[in-house]
Design goal:
There is one protein chain. This protein has 184 residues and is an alpha+beta fold. It contains 3 helices and 7 strands; from the N terminus they run E-H-E-E-E-E-E-H-H-E. It has a 5-stranded antiparallel sheet, with helices on both faces. A two-stranded parallel sheet has the order 1-7. The protein is globular and about 45 Å long. The two termini are 23 Å apart. 32% of the residues are buried.
Length: 184
């Protein structure tokens, strides 16, 4: 089932997400639906708050970056209850977009590496360091679990210039090819 994407203005996108227990109801179904929603919406990552669920989980398929980073071939992971242990490396800028902010793309600077402690879909614990494109996508999705959007990383001037577009999104005055959930 494809979930509608929660867009800018919905309070769930600004909440700090809560930890998931292994017994979380229908977790396998939620994960399957998140994958289906992400692929249908042409995303490379999707966090649970983006589909209206304030839980600490996101999915990523970074294989789109395999043309420049061959190690990303078949990079498809579920991250449950992630915690950033460390970010390091040179900051680099890349143009980012977000399914919850349709029609907005901006240059965002992020550190090159992120070390993450997380559980996979079987609740097996991992401690891994990710860099490059995968590291960037992970940091973007992790931000969603903290109630942070990529536009929060922009300068105050840039944010002011986007105010009209953000207001339009919150009122549903956008037409992405995927279903959206407009804030009440």
């Amino acid at each position: 089932m494809k979930y509608p994407i929660t867009v800018y203005g919905d309070p769930v996108l600004r909440k700090k997400a809560t930890v998931i227990e292994k017994e979380h109801p229908k977790l396998e179904e939620i994960i399957d639906n998140m994958w289906e929603t992400m692929y249908y919406s042409d995303g490379v990552g999707l966090a649970a708050p983006q589909v209206g669920m304030p839980i600490r989980m996101f999915v990523i398929d970074a294989s789109a970056g395999a043309d420049q980073e061959p190690e990303l071939e078949n990079f498809k992971k579920v991250f449950i209850n992630p915690q950033i242990i460390e970010t390091k490396g040179d900051e680099w800028t890349m143009n980012e977009g977000c399914l919850s902010l349709p029609e907005i793309r901006e240059d965002v600077s992020r550190p090159d590496e992120v070390t993450l402690k997380y559980q996979d879909e079987n609740f097996t614990e991992h401690l891994e360091t990710f860099k490059g494109f995968a590291g960037r996508v992970i940091q973007h999705e992790y931000d969603h679990l903290e109630g942070i959007l990529f536009v929060d990383h922009l300068s105050p001037l840039r944010k002011r210039l986007l105010k009209g577009k953000l207001l339009a999104i919150s009122k549903g005055k956008v037409q992405p090819h995927y279903r959206i959930r407009i804030p009440k």
